[in-house]
Amino acid sequence: MDEADLLYMIVKRFGEVDLHPDKVSNLEMGYIFEELIRRFSELSNETAGEHFTPREVIRLMVNLLFVNDREILTKQGIVRTLYDPASGTGGMLSIAEEYLREFNPDARLEVFGQEVNPESYAICKSDMLIKGQNASNIKFGNSFTNDGLENEKFDYMLSNPPFGVEWKKVEKQVKDEHEKRGFAGRFGAGLPRISDGSFLFLQHMISKMKPANGGSRIGIVFNGSPLFTGGAGSGESEIRKWIVENDMLEAIIAMPEQLFYNTGIFTYIWIVTNRKARARKGKIQLINAIGFYNKMSRSLGNKRNEIGEGHIETITKTYGDFKENEFSKIFDNEDFGYWQITVERPLKDESGSIMKDSKGKLKPDADLRDSERVPLKEDIKTYFKREVLPHVPDAWIDESKTKKGYEINFTKYFYKYKPLRSLAEIRADILALEKETDGLLRKAIE
């Protein structure tokens, strides 16, 4: 801007606007900044979601990470670290630091991040300089192929990676690490489909957890895909299996739609940790917060809803209380697992006789092959006798094809049945519409 002789004029215009705290609150200032970034993103044909997350969402995520950590909220002189592998313009980092200072002015949060977009990286680094943070902790580059903070471990991690973005450009490097290093690398649990790299970010963050005696806590925003995409044996299911069976998934919070500037879809906050409280060991809490929002008087891109302070307090309390109610359900880890069994039926010849192979074993009919999902808590043979054999007595299980899978069908656990309207109500509506239509036709003819 300086080279184009624009910098002075822009700075001069800022001086003409009254932005005193008495006129513009911190929250309003945050929205002004976010709106400027959103408009800049539209002009440069970039996705706004790659740059920042709404302030109220970050405040909620920070609450969920810190709510049970009394040391960081109360202890004098305590120092903790926070990391975001997709830091964008630094919103997660700066708001988390600002929010912590409100609770404990004597605590210090050292922030770290990495960003692949050069403009966002520059804004983030500048913001850290202004706030007195060590700007050299913000690294430039792709977190998957050029980890600028390799071997570093952090107390807390927050991130809102881009939703549903493919990782084809880094496919070779990621696959090499997965195949050659396994769990000694970052992606040992599995690889998601190329079209969505969300689980790569989470595995990358888990690799930066401190050992379990001190441990770390992660808050990450996903769309619905990581909950259920991929059947048993797929990369996504294997990653879910690894996270759940290692007792790292603490909670998932379903958020309202139309919260983000670049998308109106429902989103989910995952809380992942290797230091669960004793009461949470072997448990996963689901919180349904999709109705916790206020309508905005004016839309900002796709953002039409916002989470109010009261909603943040309610969600935080619901999470912290760790009790079941209308909006909170608590499950055993195993409740989300299942066995996928392959059900075979015999192949028959034209005369209807069952065919066998050279060893006298029944030949399966590929056209009649089916599969069933058996909950992990159920015995497979008991389930098979109860649910399958009464309908197809000649069926059997091909045990060589049995796979273990995990998925989290969030809607299933909070579904509320809405009774269908009665025929009398429907008939009354139809008659009323006919009467209204008849009246309109008469007016038109007259």
TrEMBL record:
> DNA methylase adenine-specific domain location, by residue?
29-334
GO process annotations (BP)? DNA restriction-modification system; methylation
Q: Which CDD domains match?
A: AdoMet_MTases (cd02440)
EC number from the UniProt entry = 2.1.1.72
* MF terms in GO: DNA binding; N-methyltransferase activity; site-specific DNA-methyltransferase (adenine-specific) activity
- Name the top EC class: transferase
Q: What keywords were assigned to this record?
A: Methyltransferase, Restriction system, S-adenosyl-L-methionine, Transferase
Can you state which reaction this protein catalyses?
a 2'-deoxyadenosine in DNA + S-adenosyl-L-methionine = an N(6)-methyl-2'-deoxyadenosine in DNA + S-adenosyl-L-homocysteine + H(+)
The organism's superkingdom is given as Archaea
Recorded hits in Pfam families, A to Z, give: N6_Mtase
The record's listing under Gene3D superfamilies reads: Vaccinia Virus protein VP39
Q: Does the keyword Transferase apply?
A: yes
Entry-linked InterPro entries: DNA_Adenine_Mtase, DNA_methylase_A-5, DNA_methylase_N6_adenine_CS, SAM-dependent_MTases_sf
Protein name per its UniProtKB record: site-specific DNA-methyltransferase (adenine-specific)
What is the phylogenetic placement of the source species in the record?
Answer: Archaea, Methanobacteriati, Methanobacteriota, Stenosarchaea group, Methanomicrobia
